[in-house]
Specification:
2 copies of one chain form a homodimer. By secondary structure, chain A is α/β, with parallel strands linked by helices. In chain A, 26% of the residues lie in helices and 25% in strands. The first copy, chain A, has 3 domains: 3-59 and 186-228 and 247-258 and 269-431, Glycosidases (TIM Barrel, Alpha-Beta Barrel); 442-657, Class I glutamine amidotransferase (GATase) domain (Rossmann fold, 3-Layer(aba) Sandwich), CATH 3.40.50; 665-718, Golgi alpha-mannosidase II (Immunoglobulin-like, Sandwich). In chain A, a hairpin with a 2-residue loop joins strand 34 (693-699) and strand 35 (702-709).
């Protein structure tokens, strides 16, 4: 066995798995063990010459403290169901639809100060003398106008930690008591938690890595009466509030806080909403405060010669790794769950830590390791997507989570992850920490969030498939494994000037979402900046409803650049004579039908410089356009698939006017990809498909090899 | 032959068809002859004891007059292509994209007074000193901001009548000179046209019916460089303008006219646009003036003991039959083209005339009567749709148009129309002018246009199929043959109060169009009126994007009433647990799949009182909801089909709480329908399908007959 072919791997364990853990450690050459929510580190494993990770909960797992300090339990802004009045008074039951074991109305802090009753028919806030809360009935009674709709925004305590609740439900934990939360930002708890961490470090000398899960504020996750998920927003700030924090925010921001800044008409500032100035202020404030306090905990860990690792998830609100303040925390490492290429890049692209670790799927939980489940298939799919992203931006380590017992007992599963671990180590061996070749220009994803949500664009919940987004996330997923430097940029940045290194700007999403941009497209500075950029030779790629915002006779505000607009009903009377011509550089490799997913319909070509490459009846799905010296490409949708990766790659090189550069390192078969490491002289060809493939390898524009690839194969060659 | 079985039929003729016309007159028992655009009435037919119709053009067919009075040629407001500036000056070629044989820039009236240059990036009008028009180059040169988009709104003369141009192109008339237009509203032409009409009446004593085609203003119809249709709007007012008229309008309205009132960002006030106050004012003004002047021409015709008939089409702008001033014209008759049930009701529902006549399809033109054409199939389809509407609201007469020669020479075609004519006469014979049974409540179609566009809702061009609308027009088409009194009502009327006779309100269309209603749904009076109506027992039916307008956390503003909303991306984080239950009154007769057409996607059920009857994946397509004492039904789309007629019929009876009334007169097979005439004791069962059908007939709730129907059969029974 090669010297390199060991380490870089973390295994979960449990008290009943001592023997097995040692056997698997040897088999897989693991160099770290970890515990999980629901498992414990057996003492017998502490002398195994591996690093020991300990999951550390800063905000839960101490019900005694929480019960003693009920006013410092974490809080969340909730909005009641919108209720239609039928007379001049209306009573709204606040907890209707929520699970009362998870959330409890906060009656400690003054409702009149912190709540808001809104007439949603007019958008007006009710004066506080027009409503009363009755704690006994749990109802707000208000003076209503008949047939107007009202909501109550209110504060509730998180009396069951959402992740503990999720894990309890998923694993059917009957006996474990509900873990209450406490808010580390508040003075008593803050002091207590710091002391407790010190004490814990002292009592756990064998622990090498404190794995914070995570710091202080849980992403938004609420459950309904039937304990089903009611609302989930992986980026949500709704549960990061308390009067204590909000009063500080008011001082910092210089204006009065309103609950509406958080409940946002009931959309809870989903990342799909164009963020309000006030919400962006709140994010900024929270990130400043959370990073400061997190640093204090990390410093404590360091003072005991332990490493501090952060889990990217759970209570990660305020610590977003691509935020401005993250590096100040001083963490040694970040670990996160890898659902696909995009979520891998979320971790591997993080700056300001010594190393990154990816927890591969599947998690060893009984929701997958059950009759009818397919953990091996999941592991394969996951690895195909992760591998191509690792080749572009490597993680330093990988690992698994959950109950080792489940994995061990599933026939063939350990063999499957053995292959994964082996390929992962091959990548490090061949690349020696050098970067893969990337095209000599940058690509920018333009949306309202920019780098703060790097590799997080167009997503709802971490790596979950949603019908509404897969045709857009596909673009980001394709990019996660491409030989391209990708930046995520905001409209504010665009207005300040576009970097000369940037050759292609991409805008992807549904109209009026933060991803498309909404009213930003009415901003003359935005449209002029992009028109000038393209006119002077830049490339623009739009997917779905790019630059969409109904205004002054256009729906796509960059209709002139894109060569397409969307028929919204107002211009049906205008005849369109769209005809298809498939003959184009972008489609040269493409044989089969193109999958546009749930792409937008009613797209028509516009102007005189377009070429339509794909149509749906009389409407278009793929259109290129010349604009001055520049070019644009429009896709109605682009779900992830190996073929769509290729189409997008070609579209980017075309838009950048860099067609000649494309075959510097290239493989002919669309199911295969190539990564070249010029410093080590090594090249990897991967087959992204679970079937054999033939492919030609081009180096510096010339055909060098004809390769027969096994299913899922990764082959290394020298050049 | 029954005495009734004659008459009520108009045939076209031509100079080369004397013998044939006489033969067909006898065969079909026609009682009127007509000429057409491109044909002439032969003298030999004037003694055939039939009424003679003469097509009369008030605005064309007199190039000598037009050329002598170029300033009184008709005008149209056009908008240039939107052009993006790349520097500080920009030149826009006005006629780019238009056909210069049809339209010519008006340089007689001051451009600075009547034109408008708009920066479409900011929406601001350019001061007139910042642009100049150069007649030689045909360009407006303006001071621009780089990368802003500009348009020029300008006046052009209609130097080729659009319908004459259309007919010339369609029939490949090479030799006939382009017919110029002239504007009868202007003083010199008005005087001339009146005198000419008198003279014409004197010179044509044999003419019984003057068929005006039509009065003064052509609907909007422009052609592009290649003589292809560029823009068509059957309801368009863009070609009804001139400085002479606009100065009168300014006095009447009390405010300054702006070209933008007409060009409307380039959408030219398509009926799909929520009409501006100014455009509604302009319509009102034009209808007042046109009806006054039309009356003068009708009076002249009457003074010669001739009848005045109006063709519903061509130059019909200002004479819309459901407008407030139409009856004042004093016409004897209206004739119009019947494309389907909806367009039939457009004619047969007209009040204020003595009789109505429908020109059935196909028109005897070479675009249908050609190799590969199917005139018999078109005649059958047309009749199936027309017949069910005639049974509800009969026309007095039918007729055909075009070249009789083409019809005569097509094998089997005359036999087909013989059947049609025979069935048409049977209807009159059996109904004796009495009205068919209708349900004991009214149904209202709610949109921005109301009764002014009765049976014209959701349509682009007269009876033409468009992919964007067929899923909505289907609702109106279904209604055109149903046993229901249908009203078309506006939001303004809703706010004033809903008639107690009205039991169901229907709102159909795409978000932000005039048919759905756009910002009207932010009006608290509108939503409260409908909520109260339904709460008190009314029914509401929404199709597509009813009550849609993103505002205060809702997309469908009547989400509470409808029990559905549409996912626009902002609430993907909110879990939806929608489950289907098909067991419902509405679907009792329905066996096969339901066709929702190009219905809206991403519809989810909302609230606690819904039942989902049809789903598309996790989203819904057909949902019912209970709201107080009332009910609602939501369809994602409803194209016309016999099955969808039945589903809609049941939905309406359900929404109205009138399920028990439904089987007063009823047939079981969805491809069949029944009409009952209580005063004559006759009942018609029709088979709307070109195949045999078995159906059970219910009268007063009881099964009375089991009928075996031939393809397309109409059977009359007594009860």
């Amino acid at each position: 066995m090669n010297e390199e072919n060991k380490g870089r791997l973390t295994l979960p364990t449990d008290v009943d798995m001592v023997e097995e853990t040692i056997r698997l450690k040897e088999l897989l050459q693991a160099d770290a063990f970890r515990d999980c929510d629901g498992t414990q580190m057996p003492k017998e494993l502490l002398n195994q010459n591996v690093k020991i990770y300990a999951t550390y909960y800063t905000t839960r797992n101490d019900n005694a403290w929480a019960m003693k300090n009920p006013e410092e339990i974490q809080q969340e802004y909730l909005i009641s169901d919108p209720i239609t009045a039928r007379s001049n008074t209306l009573s709204i039951k606040l907890m209707q639809g929520f699970h009362t074991e998870q959330l409890k109305v906060n009656t400690i802090d003054s409702p009149k100060r912190w709540w808001e009753v809104i007439d949603r028919t007019t958008g007006k806030v009710l004066p506080s003398e027009q409503w009363e809360y009755d704690a006994a009935s749990g109802e707000v009674t208000l003076q209503s106008i008949p047939y107007h709709v009202y909501t109550v925004s209110f504060l509730a305590f998180l009396i069951w930690d959402p992740v503990h609740m999720y894990n309890s439900i998923t694993n059917d934990w009957k006996s474990s008591p509900h873990q209450l939360t406490y808010d580390v930002r508040q003075p008593k708890t803050q002091k207590y938690v710091k002391e407790k961490l010190k004490k814990w470090c002292e009592e756990n000398p064998h622990v090498d890595v404190v794995r914070f899960t995570t710091f202080f504020h849980q992403f938004t996750l609420t459950f309904d009466k039937q304990k089903r998920e009611k609302y989930v927003e992986w980026f949500g700030y709704s549960a990061s509030v308390s009067p204590y924090i909000l009063e500080q925010f008011e001082k910092w921001a210089g204006y009065t806080f309103r609950p509406e800044f958080i409940v946002d008409q009931g959309y809870h500032n989903s990342t799909f909403r164009v963020p309000s100035k006030e919400f962006l202020d709140f994010i900024e404030f929270q990130q400043i405060e959370v990073s400061k306090l997190a640093k204090e905990l990390v410093d404590i860990v360091h003072s005991y010669n332990k490493e501090a690792m952060m889990f990217l998830g759970d209570h990660w609100i305020g610590t977003e790794p691509f935020g401005k303040y993250f590096a100040n925390i001083g963490l040694d490492a970040v670990v996160g769950s890898v659902g696909d290429g995009v979520t891998l890049r979320m971790i591997s692209d993080i700056q300001g830590v010594t190393y990154t670790e990816g927890r591969l799927l599947p998690y060893f939980f009984p929701d997958v390791f059950k009759e009818g489940g397919d953990p091996i298939g999941e592991a394969k799919d996951n690895w195909i997507k992760a591998r191509r992203a690792i080749l572009r931006s490597p993680l330093d380590r990988i690992g698994y989570g959950g109950y080792l017992k489940l994995a061990k007992e599933w026939p063939g599963f350990i063999e499957e992850i053995q292959k994964v671990v082996d390929e992962f180590r091959q990548i490090h061996e061949n690349t020696q920490g050098t970067k893969a070749y990337t095209a000599p220009f940058k690509v920018g994803i333009l949306n309202c969030w920019g780098n703060l949500r790097r590799w997080m664009a167009n997503q709802v919940h971490h790596a979950l498939w949603y019908r509404e987004i897969y045709s857009y996330v596909g673009v980001i997923e394709c990019l996660s494994g491409m030989p391209l430097d990708v930046e995520f940029i905001t409209f504010e940045e665009i207005k300040k000037g576009i970097s000369p290194e940037m050759k292609v700007i991409i805008n992807v999403g549904d109209a009026y979402t933060s991803w498309s941009g909404g009213d930003n497209w009415k901003d003359e500075k935005v449209v002029c900046a992009i028109r000038q950029f393209v006119d002077n030779g830049g490339g623009f790629i739009g997917v779905g409803e790019p630059s969409a915002c109904q205004y002054e006779g256009q729906f796509f505000q960059l209709r002139d650049v894109l060569g397409v607009d969307r028929e919204m009903g107002f211009s049906i009377s205008t005849d369109k004579y769209n005809e298809m011509d498939k003959n184009h550089f972008i489609l040269e490799d493409i044989v089969g039908e193109i999958n546009f997913g749930e792409g937008k319909s009613r797209i028509y070509a516009y102007g005189e410089n377009y070429q339509i490459l794909n149509m749906d009846g009389k409407y278009s799905r793929l259109v290129v356009n010349e604009y001055g010296k520049g070019r644009s490409v429009y896709f109605s949708g682009l779900p992830y698939s190996p073929q769509n990766c290729r189409i997008l790659l070609r579209a980017i090189y075309y838009a950048a006017h860099e067609e000649k550069e494309m075959k510097k390192f290239y493989v002919s078969n669309v199911d295969t990809e190539v990564s070249a490491y010029e410093k080590t002289g090594r090249i990897a060809v991967i087959n992204n498909c679970n079937a054999p493939r033939q492919t030609e390898l081009y180096i510096h524009g010339e055909r060098k090899e004809y390769l027969s690839m096994c299913p899922m194969e990764m082959r290394w060659l020298s050049f």
